[in-house]
Design a protein that fits this description.
The protein contains 9 helices and 22 strands. By secondary structure, the chain is an alpha+beta fold. The strands form 5 sheets. Strands 1, 2, 3, 4, 5, 6 and 7 form a 7-stranded mixed sheet that branches. A 5-stranded mixed beta barrel has the order 8-15-16-18-22.
Length: 476
Amino acid sequence: MTSISHTVATALQFAGTQVPWAAVRYSRECTTHRVVRNDLPQTNDTSIDEGAMCEVLLDGHFGYAATADLSAAGLQEAFSRAIETTRASTARKAHAFASRQRPAVTGNYRSARARDLDATGLAEIMDCLLAATAAMKCADTLVNRMAHAMLVQTQVDYFTSAGAQTSQSFDMVSLNLSATAAQGSESQTRSWSRTGQWGGEVFAREAAVQQARRVAAEALALLAAPNCPSGPMDLVLMPDQMMLQIHESIGHPLELDRILGDERNYAGWSFVQPEDFGRLRYGSELMNISFDPTRAHEFASYAYDDGGNPATKEMLIEGGILKRGLGALESQERSGIPGVANFRAASWNRAPIDRMANINLEPGTASLQDLIGQVEHGILMHTNRSWSIDDYRNKFQFGCEYGQLIENGRLGAVVRNPNYRGITVDFWNRLAGVGREDEAHGTPNCGKGEPNQIIRVGHASPPCLFRGVEVFGGQA
């Protein structure tokens, strides 16, 4: 626990004289960005965000107030505001809650890492980024070569008047490389990223150089490639594209607060209805989707959510049948639908809401070559570059960076501007092959809620084969 624990105990004692239950969630996050563009360092900045959220339960209603003043007086003032606003709004509460929605747990968590980010020097990071951009300098048509590292160190401590005490420490890294090739009016970008809960071991110079050379070569290949053909065909999606397919057409529509209507003014509803759980055939029998914050190194791994609920691996979809929603204890209480430990806040000054964490497609038994070998006429796609999905998370289209045609079970020509579209349930029922080796990818930029919350999520998936998908290309 941090040194704030004594001050928190005093504040909780103060709140306990006025309400039956109270909590403090303390958060400190240090974020560092390093950017090298065309061999020149461009960004070297660090920011620290620190504060606490005070929470109370009064007449069945949870209320909040945040403060950056971490003194005993500052926390007590925040509790006074939380009590005042909660008392004023309790008559209009959506549901009557109880302290059982905030388990009285104790424990600690430290994200998996080989070497702490604190032990990783700026010189080592910059050497890795500079080497990567230099490795991409292989043709005059490569007009932009960029390497970006984001390092995040987070401490979250949670205390309640019922005796809960949890402490969680996270080291997170997002390492991104990109190369843009241009000639005349045409330009093509190829990228690579490694994102998750890692330490300084991510900044391995030779590994970054190897990825940089591949990225540059593929950007040049795209520049010379024809446009993707259009028409129905089989589609093999690689893990870096499966990430967004899972995120948009499974993660968001299964959020229980969205299904209950809480998000309708901002991010929309969902085509999924409460009666669909346990009944809806969401996809083929090969589709098995898990919620798994316990998996090491994914971007959204943790031991407890921000309401103190212990995180466990749970199956959301098994054998293609929808089983469980992405709803924390409050949403489970309101809906009667089984959920998960996903009550998450983006910062100390935001109240937790239902969020994705690690939403993964469980591996199958096929190798990538097995998947490709099953395709008579189709295409393989890597890496998302554009997306569009309706407010009900039903109809979608995605554009990818890199495509390769498949003919008679063999990879063929590279094509640029590959896109595909579909309708969620129909698309997932076209799932015909699941690879045996998965990769974890993530994003730090999932937005939701009013006021807005930008949060980190992770997705692990093997490559997958879908039959008869509508594919289309860019303009000639």
